[in-house]
Design a protein that fits this description.
Layout: E1 8-9, E2 13-15, E3 21-22, E4 38-40, E5 44-45, H1 79-85, E6 94-99, H2 105-118, E7 123-127, H3 132-142, E8 149-152, H4 157-167, E9 171-175, H5 192-209, E10 213-217, H6 230-234, E11 237-243, E12 249-257, E13 265-271, E14 274-277, E15 296-303, E16 306-318, E17 326-329, H7 333-347, E18 355-361, H8 373-385, E19 393-395, E20 398-399, E21 405-406, H9 411-420, E22 425-427, H10 434-441
Parallel strand pairs: 6-10, 6-11, 7-8, 7-9, 9-10, 17-18, 19-22
Antiparallel strand pairs: 1-5, 2-3, 2-4, 11-12, 12-13, 13-14, 15-16, 16-18, 20-21
Binding site for ATP: 99-106
Region (Disordered): 55-79
Keywords: ATP-binding, DNA damage, DNA repair, DNA-binding, Hydrolase, Metal-binding, Nucleotide-binding, Stress response, Zinc, Zinc-finger
């Protein structure tokens, strides 16, 4: 009887840039979005691949017998950034900071480098996008000069590693990971293969030498970190730097943190002299018109673990246009339209004539949580009835289509912050119906 030979098993197709596999050929890799990189993989003989068994050098231990060592952290000198990181930078960790172009990533990290160097540590700042003169000019403007802060303008990974060997720094900052390339990987700088290899090499150096590394990451037009998804898996901490160019406020929030929480938010303010932390941002989103002008109402919004008072303003103007406009800034337009319908149905508060409706937050802050519903509804009711909201109240609560006010998450934290700021009454789930809220809040 003839012995059946093992036939080669087709391995499908594989992307040469990021390694993504598929059973059918496609022209564009859906993982790294590169064209023409999907090629047929080499077939493997069925039954020939078998993992070898190796005796472990260290036996597995019960989790209850594993000792817990406290994580040593080094403060950066920026209190708001330390808040997000959980108290400071862990030696040997790799931190990725991403954000829109021009939001202030380089300015923030240059300030961090200066403050760390001012304590006597050696810091290596690798700028792969700017010249040494440009970085020096920014450092002079922001007061970030220090003799132990070393600058290097290199785009070759091998040269960057050589600089680390020569300087022997206590902190390395690479701006940015998408502009550094290596001859060990194929593709252009910023491609998935290059970004993966550069990040892996820097991570390996950080772990072997116990040096923290800060990486700047670009983002796509959708706000996602550019490059392969494996970049976020390689690093220990992923932080997003958010902010509107029209405002001076910036937020840093951690979306991944192996050494701390991910529900902390750091507040910064951008100025001509640089970027500074804002430990108490309570006055940034309030105007002097609270309690005196119709159409204004204060709510307590949560940014991470921090409750921030935000003023919501509404304006209702009669119009002769066939299609009245709804213009919003900082809140969801669909949510505002729904609240207008709830006001009309359950509170019997609606414009007597076709009107344009404008809703905005003070300071350009964006609020997406449902707890702002009650503030929007009361601001609209105040603008329609032309009666101001009492200035000593702040409101929180989600409004359902039935007109019911539901409690906001972490109400106790919001209430304590409201009392600290002098707001005597925090309306919310204690009021059963929207009609009662309007009668209670709007002065006669």
């Amino acid at each position: 009887m003839a012995t059946a030979r093992s036939r080669p098993t087709p391995a499908g197709y594989r992307c040469a840039e990021c390694g993504w596999r598929t059973a059918k050929w496609v022209g564009r890799c859906p993982e790294c979005e590169s064209w023409g990189t999907v090629q047929e993989a080499e077939p493997t003989a069925a039954g020939r691949v078998q993992a070898a068994t190796v005796a472990p050098s260290r036996r597995a231990r019960p989790i209850t017998d594993v000792p817990t060592d406290p994580v040593a952290r080094r403060p950066t000198g920026e209190g708001e950034l330390d808040r997000v990181l959980g108290g400071g930078i862990v030696p040997g960790s790799v931190i990725l900071l991403s954000g829109e172009p021009g939001v202030g990533k380089s300015t923030l990290l240059l300030a961090v480098a200066s403050r760390v160097a001012a304590k006597g540590a050696r810091v290596l700042y690798v700028s792969a996008e700017e010249s040494l003169g440009q970085v020096r000019m920014r450092a002079e403007r922001t007061g970030s000069l220090s003799p132990t802060l070393f600058l290097s303008a290199e785009t070759d990974l091998a040269v960057v590693l050589g600089q680390i060997d020569e300087v022997q720094p206590n902190l390395v900052i690479v701006d940015s990971v998408q502009t550094v390339s290596t001859a060990e990987a194929t593709g252009i700088a910023g491609g998935p293969g290059q970004v993966r290899e550069v990040a892996a090499s820097l991570t390996r150096v950080a772990k072997e030498r116990n040096i923290p590394v800060l990486l700047v990451g670009h983002v796509t037009k959708d706000g996602q970190i550019a490059g392969p998804r494996v970049l976020e898996h390689l690093v220990d901490v992923v932080c997003h730097f958010e902010g509107d160019r029209g405002t001076a406020l910036r937020f840093v929030r951690a979306v991944k943190n192996r050494f701390g929480p991910t529900d902390e938010v750091g507040c910064f303010e951008m100025s001509g002299e640089g970027i500074v932390g804002v430990p108490d941002p309570s006055g940034l989103f309030l105007s002097r018109a609270v309690g005196t002008e119709p159409g204004t109402c204060v709510t307590l919004a949560l940014e991470g673990r921090r409750a921030i008072p935000v003023e919501v303003q509404a304006l209702v103007v009669p119009t002769s246009a066939p299609n009245p406009r709804l213009v919003v800034n900082g809140v969801d337009s669909a949510r505002v339209a729904m609240l207008m319908a709830v006001l009309s149905r359950h509170a019997h508060v609606a414009p007597s004539k076709p009107s344009d409706i404008y809703v905005s937050t003070v300071g350009g802050v964006k609020i997406v949580e449902p707890a702002v519903d009650l503030a929007i509804a009361l601001a609209l009711a105040s603008a329609i009835t032309e009666r101001p909201i009492r200035g000593d109240i702040a409101v929180c609560g989600e409004i359902s289509l039935a007109g019911e006010i539901r409690p906001a998450v972490q109400a106790s934290r919001r209430e304590s912050e409201a009392k600290r700021l002098g707001f005597g009454t925090l309306l919310g789930p204690d009021l059963a119906w929207l009609r009662d809220a309007v009668i209670e809040a709007v002065t006669s």
